[in-house]
Fold this sequence. Notes:
By secondary structure, the protein is α/β, with parallel strands linked by helices. The chain is 37% helix and 20% strand. It has 15 helices and 19 strands. It has a 6-stranded parallel β-sheet with strand order 2-1-3-4-5-6, with helices on both faces. It has a 5-stranded mixed β-barrel with strand order 15-16-17-19-18. β16 (433-438) and β17 (443-447) form a beta hairpin. The mean pLDDT is 96. Bound molecules: 5'-deoxyadenosine (5AD) and iron/sulfur cluster (SF4). 5'-deoxyadenosine (5AD) binds next to β13.
Amino acid sequence: MQNGELKLRFVPQTELDIQKEYCKKVAALLNERYGKKPLACVVTYGCQQNVADSERLKGMLFEMGYGFTDDRFSAQLIIFNTCAVREHAEDRVFGNVGALKKHRAENPGTIVACCGCMMQQEHIARKIKKSFPFVDLVFGTHVVHRLPELLYKTLTSQKRVFETPDADGVIAEGVPVLRDDEKKAWLPIMYGCNNFCTYCIVPYVRGRERSRLPQDIVSEAKSLADSGYKEITLLGQNVNSYGKDLEPRVSFAELLRMINDLPGDFRIRFMTSHPKDCTEELLLAMAECEKVAKHLHLPFQSGNDRVLRAMNRGYTRSRYLSLISRARELMGDSLSVTSDIIVGFPGETRQEFLDTLSLIEEVRFTSLFTFIYSPRKGTPAASMPDPVSQEEKGRWLRELLDAQERISAQNMKKYSGKTLKCFICGRGRQPGELEARTDGNLIVELEGDESLIGSFKNITVTEPLTYVLKGRLAE
Ligand code: 5AD
Ligand code: SF4
């Protein structure tokens, strides 16, 4: 890629300055209209990338003078940041937006906005336009940085605002961020996806793969570490292809090493990895970088080669298995491997499903995220013959979950009596309890004072349960 092309992907400074001006205009308008600090409620669905986007939405809203609430009925602005990856997520959004109809009718000054992956699909934006007339503002994934301008338009015109341009995508540096947590941070390193797995809507709604410059990422990581952040999670749909679009090229493994070299006591995590681009170089960097958590989230989706081909995944079962054994060779027992699986891909037979089941028996993952296939309009898989009933797919999923439950419980036993360095990340489920995370991202619950939240501590496991470990502070 030429430098000129590279520059085109970045939102120019002049455009960002215009948005800053709009921030001031909105702030003045809000002051006039409400007389006190108005409240915004940002409701986020879906993946961590969406959580990170919402932190940027909140950063801009903060600059515009908004305070924040989790109670949508006391907010003057409600934004739904939506997810399109499965139908279930979309149904929840429609349900929750629909539930605001009466409230919005009784409070005409309240603004209801929808953004995110769902809105980037034409048929969804159309449905909102037609069937949800009380939604004031709809904007897509490529114009998030223009929220100040779009909100200003919504506040000043009598018309509804719809802005969902189709695009390959841009990178907006320097957008303000208001982080949800003071110790754990999400750090996007790239956006979009080029893989076009045949079931997946993401490449259509998030545009082409584009990497942030390494110096921008490293300086953000440095300022996070300097201000006391203890866990930094690097985000991308396929972090293993980071930097392929940069000139000069920088690999994800090199980026990991740069961040690992920053001073400070913090842990680096990353997600999501794609087996097709998972290299020896990356596994070595993981093994050698002391700050990088020994946790590999490597979605395999299916254990059958025909299904993998139909999904356009770009690897085989045996390649996946050899990656896992190489990773374990390098990182040993300390490595935690997790994965995503789709059950009931169109045309998948019982026999092919059994290959997925046998793969989880073979790998013995720490934990799994399992999904029943959900047709996504406009993707190739949505028009493939899909003869297996939902009930049957549900039974397969249950088999998978039962097997994984047994495997997880067995895996957890090996931690009994062990002392592990854990990050205490928040309150536990029971009063007086804290929740901590091991390097491999396992949950440990322990009794302790809330002042420990946000620190690393050695914790001895006293009782391994199926999904969580019970522990106590080590002497
Ligand atoms: N149906 C079911 N699951 C899906 N995923 C992505 N698209 C679909 C779909 N259409 C799952 C994949 C992916 C995870 C984030 O969501 O397993 O890894
Ligand atoms: Fe979707 Fe595949 Fe891209 Fe992941 S790698 S976002 S599953 S297309």
